[in-house]
Design goal:
InterPro entries: Homeodomain-like_sf (IPR009057), HTH-type_TetR-like_transc_reg (IPR050109), HTH_TetR (IPR001647). GO terms for molecular function: DNA-binding transcription factor activity; transcription cis-regulatory region binding. This is HTH-type transcriptional repressor BepR. Keywords: DNA-binding, Transcription, Transcription regulation. By secondary structure, the protein is mainly alpha-helical. It folds into two domains: 46 residues, Orthogonal Bundle (Arc Repressor Mutant, subunit A), CATH 1.10.10.60; 132 residues, Tetracycline Repressor, domain 2. Helices cover 70% and strands 0% of the residues. Helix 2 crosses helix 5, helix 2 packs across helix 7 and helix 8 packs across helix 9. It is elongated and about 60 Å long. It starts with 5 loop residues before the first helix and ends in a 5-residue tail after the last helix.
């Protein structure tokens, strides 16, 4: 059994929990859900396995907490369409561009691959990752479309717009056809990887049919 680092022991309980979550995220990305162990997580966090179990009763509970932790980070970085522009088509285009940037980050792509590999054993984990990465984005976009009265079925339109703008690039990243972004997206500006012309053209097709 490993020993606990003094630096870990001196942290407040909430910070110890977050350190375990960050360590678990790294272990999951490196080894996958099935191969990752609580011993691995404890060693990466600089603590002991009993301490990890004091915070999380099982590996499944820990990994579910990791998904929720990532969800919180993802939503803060994504924001809503209204935060990007006043004009609806541009607001939606910039929202989709930011969404694509976030899911194109190396860890986001890796997390999707880990979740897909675990789908047979842990379908609830895979659904939770899908909800974190995609369903939340659809809900945010649908809420904007509904609030602006731009669509009769905002949920369906939001899903169509997101997949029209991010689907192709993300599938290429997921299958390794293209390399993911190594650095986390700059929160202040879009990176050069995002093809805004293509995204604006895709959104314009839908915007032409929006309710006046």
């Amino acid at each position: 059994m490993g020993s606990e680092e003094p630096s870990f022991r001196s942290l407040p309980r909430d910070e110890r929990r977050e350190r375990i979550l960050v360590a678990a995220k790294r272990v999951m990305l490196e080894k996958g859900v099935d191969a990752a162990s609580m011993d691995d997580v404890a060693a990466r966090a600089g603590t002991t396995k009993p301490t990890v179990y004091a915070h999380f009763k099982s590996k499944d509970e820990l990994f579910a907490a990791v998904v929720e932790y990532i969800r919180g980070l993802f939503l803060v970085k994504l924001r809503g369409p209204a935060d990007y522009a006043d004009e609806p088509a541009e607001a939606v285009a910039l929202f989709c561009a930011r969404f694509l940037e976030l899911v194109s980050w190396r860890d986001a792509v890796g997390f999707q691959r880990v979740a897909l590999a675990a789908a047979g054993r842990s379908p609830s984990l895979t659904r939770a990752v899908h909800d974190t990465m995609f369903a939340e984005g659809c809900r945010a976009l649908a809420a904007y479309l509904r609030g602006r009265k731009l669509a009769r079925n905002p949920e369906r339109l939001a899903e169509l717009i997101l997949w029209a703008t991010i689907g192709g690039p993300f599938i290429r990243l997921l299958y390794g056809v293209e390399a993911p972004a190594e650095e986390f997206p700059d929160p202040q500006r879009l990176g050069t990887r995002v093809e805004m012309k293509r995204i604006r053209e895709a959104v314009a097709v839908f915007a032409a049919g929006w309710n006046p």
